[in-house]
Amino acid sequence: MPIPVVWSPETRRHEPLREVWVGVPTEGTELPQRVDRILAALSRHELVEASAHDDDVLRRVHAPELVDHLRTVHAEWLEGPYDELVGQDRVVPYVFPTPAMTQGMAPTRATATHGRAGQFGYDTMTLVGPGTWEAARAAVDCARSAVDLVGGGARTAYALCRPPGHHATREGYGGSCYLNNAAVAAEALRDAGHGSVAVVDLDAHHGNGTQAIFWDRADVRYGSLHVDPAAGWFPHYFGHAHETGAGEGSGATRNLPLPEGTGDGTWLDAVRELTAYAAGADALVVSLGVDAAADDPESPLQVTADGYAAAGRLLGSLGVPAVLVQEGGYHLDTIGGLVAAYVDGHEHA
Q: Which of 74, 167, 194, 205 is catalytic?
């Protein structure tokens, strides 16, 4: 049976327009058109519109304060003078209460919206605009609905989540990610009775948010292959091989940083290693970023559609219930074919 594709028209509502990178506004690449390109490429599969779910799992994965902030901050921003004064109708942080500022002191909640913007947003690239909350929340419903389908007997379900989520931590958002769809899927699979869940992250960038959420847990293991952050790539501070978890989660995290220019051969060797690492888990979540492809503007890796198809066969061979969660992939002309290559490989494993 073809893998069902869960989606929501609401995920088109987020329109970042731009990013602010090293102080310069640049054109955004995480565009609503991504949804339609992927849908077109997966047209032979059954399309399932996501069902609404409550916030229970979401508020266990994320701090409730973060969820509430994302739900309300854009409306608060519009009530302020920012559009009139500087022509900015998106929420953009400019000051961050990092340990360098707080030095162990308990910060007081900022009064100004532009002050509070940096309490939860950890970079200047991830803007909040009209429709951002609705799209991010719909992406969570896509992930939850895919888990429901697996619970109902589907071997695998694909969640067309947009915006992506794997950079969102328990208490913060960044890297074009607002809510962590893969983490929600993993937590929901645990709730459904799966004793252990493996999250395998194929995105070109390390999923620091997913790693952070499950850092000290043994029941959800996290493995990622990605361009080496030591070569100057986002998220810079995390994704190194020495990061393996802490406490009960010690040894449950595995990172395989790859050099710039890595192509199918070395990349698939890393996929094989993570497939072996995931073996024995009762369920699987794949953070399916396809931005490791050669044409993608956001990374220097050189993976082909054949590489993604082979990765699908490798991870599909685990034979456990699986939820595929869309992460990155920003080249509109090829994103659909790359996603379809992986999904077809997983389906026919």
A: 167
